[in-house]
Amino acid sequence: MLFAMIAKDAPGALQARLDTRPVHLEHLNSLGKKLVFAGALLDAEDKPEGSIVVFEAETLAEAEAMAAADPFVPAGVFASYEVRRWRMAINNSGAEL
């Protein structure tokens, strides 16, 4: 099953995001095929203001655990995040899912 983590950055968290980004990317890469897509949400000036991460997981609890383990969470980058079941309707990316 697919689950999406939708996260919104805390005000003034840009430096924490930049400082934590290398370990955040290591975490995402460590998920292997359980990570489907990941990327930053951008504001009008193309600066990060949140993230969307799509996980493959057996349960919501498993997906929530992967989201909570993201280094951006304890670093205070995210003001909030939620993990929701996600169903893809269209895939024009060329990526196999």
Brief account:
The chain has 97 residues and is α+β, with helices and mostly antiparallel strands. 27% of the residues lie in helices and 35% in strands.
Layout: helices, strands, pairs:
Layout: E1 2-9, H1 14-30, E2 35-42, E3 48-56, H2 60-68, E4 78-86
Antiparallel strand pairs: 1-3, 1-4, 2-3
Structure notes:
This protein has 97 residues and is α+β, with helices and mostly antiparallel strands. The protein contains 2 helices and 4 strands; from the N terminus they run βαββαβ. β2 and β3 form a beta hairpin. The protein is globular and about 35 Å long. The termini are close together.
Largest sheet: 4 strands, antiparallel
Structural class: alpha+beta
SSE series? EHEEHE
State the separation between the terminal residues, measured CA to CA: 11 Å
Range of strand content: 35-45%
Query: Can you give the mean pLDDT?
Result: 94
Oligomer: single chain
The gross shape turns out to be: globular
> What is the CA-atom radius of gyration, in angstroms?
13 Å
Q: How many DSSP helices?
A: 2
Low-confidence stretches: none
Instruction: Tell me the helix content.
Output: 25-40%
Question: Strands of the biggest beta sheet: in what spatial order?
Answer: 2-3-1-4
Number of β-strand runs: 4
